[in-house]
């Protein structure tokens, strides 16, 4: 005889937990929403393909100084003005450069020799365009005054304090004007070491030299000049101008069949090996080889 299930047994079987499912779903949605809100508010800001005029005010100032450093090499005023106009200033682009140099010079930019050199490049650029700013007064003197006659190092303070015998005054013909000589103050340059180049085969960036300038901690250093030479030609490009690629980044487009030497003028010796856009293959597709070079501060 098969035992029959009573109604009491069926009542003890729990009903579906619709309430528990609803609480779980609401908790999951709330957790996802809170996570997205926290990430948006406090997560790292990823910038990509940013135009110069979209940068923050302090970043636009550094961008303008980098343009002045580049101008110090090629001297093309029209090219520099075109890049300054890309910042969309509310005034003349050279006036905006003068204001940027004034702001940076007032905020500790002159504590390093590289900062002094960068501001001098900015002053040279906007004064060449007939503009003026406060950076000229903020910059330290680029020359020192020296006395007309050298003083004997062995002379003591007593020798200077001892009164000299009275001499008859010199006539105008015998008097000589005091001459002051201006001695340029050398600017200390940073020192870098070129690390071994690494080749890549990238369809999106063929025949490209990617250079990175970093300090000993791997942090990017903007505004550093990098030189590429081939044959009797040379070109200079500056790190940090492509802000979407970071402060360390600079690049140069190669041509097939040409060998290039890369260095940092006055800061790093040339890389031991020459670079060329030779053929490489990705699958069955023929591409042109690219190179990546890193200059590390020593």
Number of helical stretches of at least 4 residues: 8
The strand count comes to 13
Helix-strand makeup class: alpha+beta
Instruction: Quote the average pLDDT.
Output: 76
State the helical fraction.
Answer: 25-40%
Oligomer designation: single chain
Distance between the termini: 94 Å
Q: What value does the Rg take, in angstroms?
A: 33 Å
Percentage of residues in DSSP E strands: 15-25%
Largest sheet: 5 strands, mixed
The residue ranges in which pLDDT falls below 50 over 5 or more consecutive positions are 143-161, 175-188
Shape: globular
Order of helical and strand elements: HHHHHHHEHEEEEEEEEEEEE
Notes on the protein architecture:
- Helices cover 32% and strands 20% of the residues.
- It is built from eight helices and 13 strands.
- It has 298 residues and is α+β, with helices and mostly antiparallel strands.
- α5 (93-105) packs antiparallel against α6 (113-128).
- The radius of gyration is 33 Å and the shape is globular.
- The chain has helices spanning 7-12, 18-42, 57-74, 77-85, 93-105, 113-128, 135-138, 157-161, and strands at 143-146, 181-184, 192-194, 198-200, 208-214, 225-230, 233-238, 249-253, 259-263, 275-276, 279-282, 285-288, 290-297.
- The N and C termini lie far apart (94 Å).
- The longest helix has 25 residues, at 18-42.
């Amino acid at each position: 005889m098969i035992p029959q299930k009573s109604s009491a047994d069926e009542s003890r079987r729990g009903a579906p937990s619709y309430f528990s499912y609803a609480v779980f779903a609401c908790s999951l949605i709330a957790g996802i929403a809170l996570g997205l809100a926290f990430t948006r508010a406090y997560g790292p800001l990823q910038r990509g393909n940013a135009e110069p005029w979209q940068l923050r005010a302090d970043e636009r100032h550094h961008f303008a100084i980098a343009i002045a450093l580049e101008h110090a090499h090629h001297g093309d005023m029209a090219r520099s003005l075109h890049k300054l106009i890309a910042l969309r200033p509310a005034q003349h682009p050279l006036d905006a450069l003068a204001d940027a140099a004034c702001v940076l010079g007032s905020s500790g930019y002159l504590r390093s020799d590289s900062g002094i050199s960068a501001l001098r490049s900015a002053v040279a650029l906007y004064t060449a365009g007939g503009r003026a700013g406060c950076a000229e007064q903020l910059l330290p003197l680029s020359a020192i005054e020296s006395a007309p006659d050298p003083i004997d190092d062995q002379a003591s303070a007593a020798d200077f304090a001892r009164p000299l015998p009275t001499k008859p005054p010199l006539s105008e013909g015998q008097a000589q004007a005091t001459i002051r000589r201006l001695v340029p103050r050398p600017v200390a340059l940073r020192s870098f070491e070129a690390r071994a180049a690494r080749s890549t085969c990238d369809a999106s960036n063929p025949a490209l030299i990617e250079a990175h300038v970093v300090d000993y901690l791997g942090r990017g250093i903007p505004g550093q000049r990098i030189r590429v030479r081939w044959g009797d030609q040379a070109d200079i490009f500056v790190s940090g101008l492509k802000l979407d690629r970071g402060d360390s980044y600079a690049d140069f487009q190669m041509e097939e069949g040409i060998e290039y030497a890369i260095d940092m003028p006055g800061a790093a010796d040339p890389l031991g090996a020459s670079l060329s856009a030779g053929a490489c293959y990705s699958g069955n597709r023929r591409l042109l080889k690219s190179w990546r070079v890193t200059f590390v501060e020593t």
